[in-house]
Amino acid sequence: MANSATPADSQNRVFILVTGANRKGNDTLRRLQDHLRSSTAPSASDRITFMPENVDLTNLLSVRALSRRLTQSLPKLDAIVLNAGLGGWTGINWPVAIWGVLTDLIHQVSWPSYKVAPAGVVTSPQTTLSTEGEEEPRLGSIFCANVFGHYMLAHNVMRLLRRSSSPQPGRVIWVSSLEGTAHLFDPSDLQGLQTYPAYESSKALTDILALTADLPSSAPWVKSFYAVDDNKDTDTTTTTISAPAVDSPPNMYLSHPGICGTGILPLSLPLFYAMIAAFWLARLLGSPWHTLSTYAGAVAPVWLALSPQADLADAEATYREHGGGRAKWGSSCDRLGRDSPASTEVDGWGYGGVVGPAVVDADQWRRRKRGAEDLTREEKERFEELGRTCWQRMEELRIQWDRILDRQEALPASST
């Protein structure tokens, strides 16, 4: 999802819904329109427009095509929420799942150990270059859907993000997962092709990129990611509204939806409702992360997308005052289902990158993952170095694939 406003009227906002399936996109569009009509003032319908778009995040040519459509039809983007993804699980280890839920409910429905997924799953060929005598490198399917497709899309629309004419810069908001932890990520296997929890690896990479984006050690590659390539074919002759002159790099934030009921893990209807019941029981027992509904799961990313910049700065101020930086903001709720965004502890980064015990009162009393320990200076240094390495390798991969896609698009139509 992204939102954009015309320079003439900052209250006239356009929300763009990006999805990989027409049926799902149409259903979501209908629900958004129904919600707009039923829960807002009548004048809001005149100010808000929903625009459905479709993209296959595992197809980089599809991502590039969407980028061009957006660049040609919008003057700017205030925020993009990078949410779509792929789980890749093929089943559940039922003996482990049943025993875990019966003996360790909260932990097993928050950080499950029973999901089954294959390793080494790759995307379909991105180009026809292999038939032209060139070899195309392998591209991990989960990695591409959850990280690299978003990464390429965000870079390709950077021109629009840098033009945000709001009182604050544009925003790139990554949606990660509670399950994404650094110990599940192998930097030598960036794409998770040799990693069995490929989904968890991809979400850990998301955390690492977003949390280290404003650190000096990552700056050269983040600057390259934020740059606009004026040589790209970004014809704006079809843009109906002139673009504002503002040009500043966006801010990057990290969120997760808590634990809610979705179809990302294939389950029959009775098992789906049994899962929801287990989530509800975990919430009653004190889990702060079981939002259950996708509506409540959207609290954190929506808060990051729509809050005034001063509010977000205030939320992270205590962490920065104690030597930290960006926080991972999760959708949380209490036993009664009252939802709110909450800082989330990250392996290797702690709460907001602060070394030692939690410095924010809410973080001190919130239930922690079993075995979690306070962040040490050595762990933080390793995390920062990991961030530098990941940013460098992601930029190298982006540049490599941009060249491959350029060569594909330069082929005669008969070759493609």
From TrEMBL:
Molecular-function annotations in GO: 3-beta-hydroxysteroid 3-dehydrogenase (NADP+) activity
Entry keyword Oxidoreductase: yes
GO terms under cellular component: endoplasmic reticulum membrane; lipid droplet; mitochondrial outer membrane
UniProt KW keywords: Lipid biosynthesis, Lipid metabolism, NADP, Oxidoreductase, Steroid biosynthesis
Record has NADP as a keyword: yes
SUPFAM superfamilies associated with the record: NAD(P)-binding Rossmann-fold domains
InterPro entries: Ergosterol_Biosynth_ERG27 (IPR051593), NAD(P)-bd_dom_sf (IPR036291)
GO biological process, one term: ergosterol biosynthetic process
Family (UniProt): Belongs to the short-chain dehydrogenases/reductases (SDR) family. ERG27 subfamily.
Stated name of the protein: 3-keto-steroid reductase
Species classification: Eukaryota, Fungi, Dikarya, Ascomycota, Pezizomycotina
